[in-house]
Amino acid sequence: MSKVLRCIVIDDEPLGREVIESFIEKIPFITLSSSFGDPLEALDYLQKAEVDIVLTDIQMPKINGLELIQSLQNPPAVIFITAHRDFALDGFDTGATDYLVKPVRFDRFLKAVNRAKDYIENIKKPKKEALTDRIFIKTEGKLVKIMLKDILYVEAQGDYLKIATEKNSYTTLSTMKSMDGALKLPDFFRVQRSFIVNVSAVQAINGNMVELNNGKVISLAISKKEELFSLLGL
After folding, report:
1. I need a surface site. Which of 34, 148, 158, 217 has the fewest CB within 10 A?
2. In sequence order, what E strands does the chain have?
C-alpha cells in the first residue's frame, strides 16, 4: 500500500486555498498538512517539516511561488497554480511536476497530483544509503572489501596506497585525497602527508613518533601533534 502523501497549499487568496483544500479532501492518497496565505510562513514551514507535494500560487506578495521553490535546497514535488498561463514555462524550469491554471477543475487537479505521485515514487524516491563502515579497493585484479574498523593505517607509496589491517596488507592504485573522503575524523587522522592512522590503533606517542598496536612506528608532523592529542583525549 502506498503511503499517504503530505501536501501544503500556498495562496494569498483565501478562496483559492479553499478550492484546493476541498479537492485534497476527495483524494485518498494525499492529505493536507498545512495551508498558508503568507508565503514566508510557508517557507519557514518547508525548512522544518517533511512535505511531499507543494501546491502553490505564483503571484504573491513578499516572495512569489517561483522564488520560494528556487530557494529550497531539496524541494518536494511542486504543482504551480496560477491565473496566468504565461508563467507556465518558468514553472517547469524550476522542476515543477505540473502547472494548473485557475479556475482549477477537479479532473485536471487529480491528473496533476497523480503525476506528482508518480514522480515521487519513481524519480524522487530516497536513494539507498551508502554503506559507510567499509570500502572496496581494487587489488590484484579483484575488488576486495575492507571494514574500516580493521584498518590500522594507510600509506602513500607514489601512485599507490598501502592499506594495512591487523591480518593483511593491500596495495591499490589510488590517492590519499580519495582515501581522505572515506577515512574521516574522529576515527581516522592524517598524521603527516603520507600516512592516515586509525586513532583507536594508536598505542603510544614518543616525541614526534606514533606507535600503533601492531608495532608500526610513524613520524608525526609537528603541526598535527596538538590535534592528535585532542582526538586521544590528552
Report:
1. 158
2. 5-10, 30-36, 53-56, 77-82, 98-101, 134-139, 142-147, 151-157, 160-165, 169-173, 188-192, 195-198, 202-206, 209-212, 217-219
